[in-house]
Amino acid sequence: xxxxxxxxxxxxxxxxxxxRRTIEALVKNTGARxxxxxxxxDAPKNASAExxxxxxxxxxxxxxxxxxxxxxxxERNWGLADSIVDGVSTIVNQYGKVVVLEDDIVTSxxxxxxxxxxxxxxxxxxxxxxxxxxxxxxxxxxxxxxxFYNQASCWGWGTWKRAWQTYNGDTSALYTxxxxxPIAHEYYVACLSQLRGNLRGSIxxxxxxxxxxxxxHRGLCLHPxxxxxxxxxxxxxxxxxxxxxxxxxxxxxxNQTPTLNKVPDFTEHQEAxxxxxxxxxxxxxxLLKRVTKRILWYVK
Length: 300
Hints:
With 300 residues, this protein is α/β, with parallel strands linked by helices. The protein has one domain (8-166, 217-299): Alpha-Beta Complex (Spore Coat Polysaccharide Biosynthesis Protein SpsA, Chain A), CATH 3.90.550. It has ten helices and ten strands. It has helices at 16-27, 50-60, 80-95, 111-121, 161-164, 171-178, 186-200, 207-216, 270-283, 287-299, and strands at residues 8-12, 36-41, 68-73, 97-102, 105-107, 128-132, 146-148, 157-160, 220-224, 229-231. Helices cover 38% and strands 15% of the residues.
């Protein structure tokens, strides 16, 4: 593997069309042919998923256009959270850095260039813990090309071994520590909510634990003003995604800038954070809907 390019880790399950679109976009990236691709294919959870999982695995065996493709076919159903934590840990511990995708992320042709440049630029800056290829679809006017906004967006992202070793899977400990922190941003509210969901057993996620680990270590997350990725999974097909186009970026409008400069100020960009908070608040369910959802969960 080229010393300058991070390995790509892709997690797939039972969506052959989404997987195909993800791969077709990724292979068009500058640097794809020089990159190693590691694919983790989860096993079917039940009989109804067997045919679609097999369809995905058949497609994976025909992939080309990368330096090397390594496919791990899980023999039992791990679930997305456990599969990602295991796969990322395995590859980042071996290579020192990693670019991570799921089977519903369509990338700009310059995504890998952006990710590898960022991973090289901030490799030795310990406070930078996460590189995101996505930013909320807010008005980018006046924002720098890249900035620190400390939501650990996981739709096309990257990190280093030094940062990932802080990942903590102890939900209770994370929740207890994080709830005392005075962080006035929507991603903090969402993180606490998801941690509570994990504690109640209503959801099983890994991203909230990664977000909490970063916040507790006062880590920084790099974002672009214009997204290099779009999530095509908000069509109701995903395990954890509902039908919702609010977060979508039109593929033709993805970032086409192949280079970036190092952010001079190692603090969270307040204007970017404010715009993201405003965007997220417009999507927050009303109090009535939140209470109704909580009641229905308890009744269930």
